[in-house]
């Protein structure tokens, strides 16, 4: 049963209860009126009449009283029936209130469950969005390391080339540098070999110098 259905049912019960309250009050008024009529009728016998006339009047009043009491009993039965209906309606109202409270609790629990699911979905989305970012960061770091290695290699090459210019090329044309090979550093060997190639334009000499 939805909340709107419960609200409609609750309103119907309240309306029914109000109608029963009105009917109950009307019956009470009729009940009191009957008592008042019996009292008034009992006091309307004229004592100055002959006894037989008084007796007739008395019998008429008794008949009226009997019918009135029948009506009164009917009203009492109706009041009892109304009371029972009111009790049933009150029980239904209590049941509806419990149902509404249960629905509120269920809705609250469902709301909390939905929020928890949304949080989990947000976490998964964040993780999913984070994966390509982490890969990008990893690629950037990798390229950075490669670039650093390249820069280091380039710097070493620059140092070797720069070292060439520390040699007096004009004196190296016929210099027998192999006699001093054990005394030269790797950079000096490279520089002398390269200088020999530059001086003599002899690439074979350059290759042989590294054999």
Task: Describe the protein's architecture and organization.
The chain is mainly α. It has 2 domains: 3-114; 165-208, no CATH class. Helices cover 83% and strands 0% of the residues. It has helices spanning 3-42, 51-164, 186-200, 203-208. The longest helix has 114 residues, at 51-164. The protein is rod-shaped and about 175 Å long. The model has no long low-confidence stretch (mean pLDDT 66).
Short summary of the structure?
This protein folds into 2 domains: 3-114; 165-208, no CATH class. Helix content is 83%, strand content 0%.
What is the domain tally?
2
Instruction: Tell me the series of helices and strands, N- to C-terminal.
Output: HHHH
Strand content: under 5%
Summing up helix and strand content along with how strands pair, one would put the structural category as mainly alpha
- How many helix segments? 4
Q: Biggest β-sheet: count, sense, barrel?
A: none
Indicate the mean pLDDT: 66
Please tell me how large the radius of gyration is.
59 Å
Overall strand count: 0
Unreliable stretches, pLDDT < 50, 5 or more residues?
none
Distance between the termini: 96 Å
């Amino acid at each position: 049963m939805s909340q709107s259905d419960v609200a409609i049912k609750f309103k119907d019960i309240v309306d029914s209860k109000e109608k029963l309250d009105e009917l109950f009050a009307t019956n009470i008024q009729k009940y009191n009126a009957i008592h008042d009529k019996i009292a008034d009728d009992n006091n309307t016998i004229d004592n100055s009449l002959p006894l037989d006339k008084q007796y007739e009047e008395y019998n008429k009043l008794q008949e009226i009283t009997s019918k009135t009491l029948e009506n009164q009993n009917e009203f009492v039965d109706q009041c009892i029936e109304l009371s029972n209906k009111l009790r049933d309606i009150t029980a239904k109202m209590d049941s509806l209130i419990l149902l509404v409270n249960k629905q509120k609790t269920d809705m609250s629990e469902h709301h909390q469950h939905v929020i928890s699911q949304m949080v989990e979905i947000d976490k998964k989305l964040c993780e999913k969005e984070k994966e390509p970012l982490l890969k990008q960061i990893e690629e950037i770091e990798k390229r950075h390391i490669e670039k650093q290695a390249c820069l280091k290699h380039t710097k070493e090459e620059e140092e070797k080339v720069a070292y060439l210019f520390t040699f007096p090329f004009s004196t190296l044309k016929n210099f027998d540098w192999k006699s001093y090979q054990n005394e030269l550093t790797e950079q000096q060997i490279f520089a002398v070999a390269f200088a020999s190639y530059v001086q003599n334009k002899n690439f074979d000499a350059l290759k042989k110098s590294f054999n």
